[in-house]
């Protein structure tokens, strides 16, 4: 018997792989570009922390996005080891298309939900996310 979470995750991953692939991006590249489109210039290390991704995966994805002309990376004036990442104008356009895909996925997921049900789900899911992030942080500290 299949677990509903597993079914959901498989379909969600496939949805985003398909949508990002149509834009010429990997899922990780799409996540990064969407975040940068919303937040603007960000330290590379903050992307790792905020999106809970591997440093190497972020560096590789940003390198490819930079090659595509979608982001720019510069060394920070404050710290020579720190890289600041910004979306280019082309990157911002693509970030908008990525956000549209996210909005469409959310419309599929919340079809038939009342505003109260949607708010309750969002609150519960936020708590679940906080729990697993705390678990992950503790795992890093102890292992």
Helix coverage percent: over 70%
Class of the largest domain, according to the CATH hierarchy? Mainly Alpha
* Count of beta strands: 3
Strand order of the largest sheet: 1-3-2
Q: Which structural class do you get from the secondary structure elements?
A: mainly alpha
Terminal Cα span: 33 Å
**Number of structural domains:** 2
CATH architecture of the largest domain: Orthogonal Bundle
Task: Give the name of the CATH superfamily of the largest domain.
Answer: Winged helix-like DNA-binding domain superfamily/Winged helix DNA-binding domain
Topology readout:
Blueprint: H1 4-22, H2 27-39, E1 42-43, H3 44-51, H4 55-67, E2 71-75, E3 83-87, H5 89-109, H6 115-142
Antiparallel strand pairs: 1-3, 2-3
Key descriptive features of the protein:
mainly alpha, three-stranded antiparallel β-sheet, 2 domains, globular, Arc Repressor Mutant, subunit A, 143 residues
Can you describe this structure?
With about 140 residues, the chain is mainly alpha-helical. It has two domains: about 110 residues, Arc Repressor Mutant, subunit A (Orthogonal Bundle), CATH 1.10.10.10; about 30 residues. Helices cover about 70% and strands about 10% of the residues. It contains six helices and three strands; from the N terminus they run ααβααββαα. It has a three-stranded antiparallel sheet. Strand 2 and strand 3 form a beta hairpin. Helix 2 crosses helix 5.
Short description:
The chain has 143 residues and is mainly α.
């Amino acid at each position: 018997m299949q677990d509903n979470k597993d079914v959901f995750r498989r379909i969600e991953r496939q949805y985003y792989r398909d949508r990002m692939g149509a834009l010429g991006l990997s899922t990780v590249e799409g996540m990064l570009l969407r975040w940068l489109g919303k937040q603007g210039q960000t330290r590379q290390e903050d992307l790792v922390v905020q999106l809970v991704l591997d440093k190497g995966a972020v560096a590789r994805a940003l390198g490819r996005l930079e090659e595509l002309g979608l982001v720019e990376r510069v060394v920070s004036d404050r710290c020579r080891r720190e890289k600041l990442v910004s979306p280019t104008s082309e990157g911002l356009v693509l970030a908008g298309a990525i956000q549209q895909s996210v909005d469409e996925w959310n419309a599929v997921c919340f079809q038939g939900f009342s505003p109260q049900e949607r708010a309750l789900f969002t609150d519960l899911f936020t708590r679940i996310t906080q729990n697993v992030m705390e678990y992950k942080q503790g795992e890093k500290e102890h292992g």
